[in-house]
User: Fold this.
Amino acid sequence: MNTMNESLHHTATVCAVCHDQCVSACPVVEATHRMSAYPSRLAMLALEVHRQGLPVDADLSRALLDCIDCGACLEGCLYVDRPNDVTPVVRWARQASAQYAPSGLQAWSQRVQATGSPYPGVSEQLAALKSALPSGEHSSPPLLLYVDAATLHYAPAMALAALQLLQSAGKLNVVLADAVYPGGEWYQYGQQDDFVAAARRLAGELAAIQPAKVVALNPYSAYLLREVYPAQAGVRLEAPVLTLAEALVDAIHGLPGAAPRKVFLVQSACESYRMGGGAGQALLEKAGAQVSGKRDELTFREMSYPDGEVFGLEPDPRLWIQKRILGAFQRSGAEVLVTTSPMALPALRAAAPGHPVMDLATYLQGPG
Ligand code: SF4
Ligand code: SF4
Assistant:
């Protein structure tokens, strides 16, 4: 077993002796009412694993699954200026009990190993998207639009809209990657070897393409490629990596005429908690939208959707999050809910039939 390094040990100790100021922000505690899901209890468990004070078994593995890596506790942390992030501590402890990984995660990994994607139908979606790429010779280096498996599965129309938006912004030399699974769940659930392999596979493909920049359509992929790959997998990409909002913020000049203007923005949790708040609001305002339910009026948890899949955790805390988001949307009086998260799109649509819910790219394209 890898030993817990000094930095993780410090992080774990700070949370373990704390009185959980952040607990009211944690959607898993709200959903499950399990005291073992309190961030400080997760830190205590990890410290016990470190000092080998607990048997590494299925019970331990089960308890350590009570974190979806959303980062909401960062917003509630009593260390306001430098919140203490418990999630790497939980991931470290999960690695120690990896042999007891939930069946859902094992089946997930088997699908990725066999087909390159955890979801069915992704290679067909990718082929359809490739057929929409403009043809012709280009002298400038390409822009790589990174469309991950989750986006192809949950929001294929978002990928096509993003491609068309980039083209209308003058980016004609666009290419796509074949390595569609960036390894996010493997990272979240502590499958470090598989995660590093996924990072290296994608980095190898990008090294062959040599794009001028990478635009990652799923903000969680941008976070992985930009921040997690170098820090946790030792993989540094040469090209700058941007979210779609970051890539478009200087290239958008006004919304198409009939687009609804009053917008409630839902970002992915990694943008809110780990990437400085995201560029969605700035982009929408630059395009002429009025963003209601802004950061100074709401907490991030009412406007952020968790990234990645949840394994072995019932009830699913995302249902609580959906309820909060939709309540805030309805109170805001906005005409449309716009999200940067491909995973949030079908979930929020299903939870709010009759309410307009759009992805960022489709919204910016405008009606028709
Ligand atoms: S994240 Fe902050 S508030 Fe929450 S348990 Fe850790 S130190 Fe305490
Ligand atoms: S990352 Fe999310 S699920 Fe995990 S302890 Fe923090 S708030 Fe709870």
Notes: Residues 262-365 form one domain. Residues 25-26, 28, 39, 67-73, 86-87 surround iron/sulfur cluster (ligand 2) (CB under 6 Å). The longest strand covers residues 262-268. The longest helix spans residues 192-209.
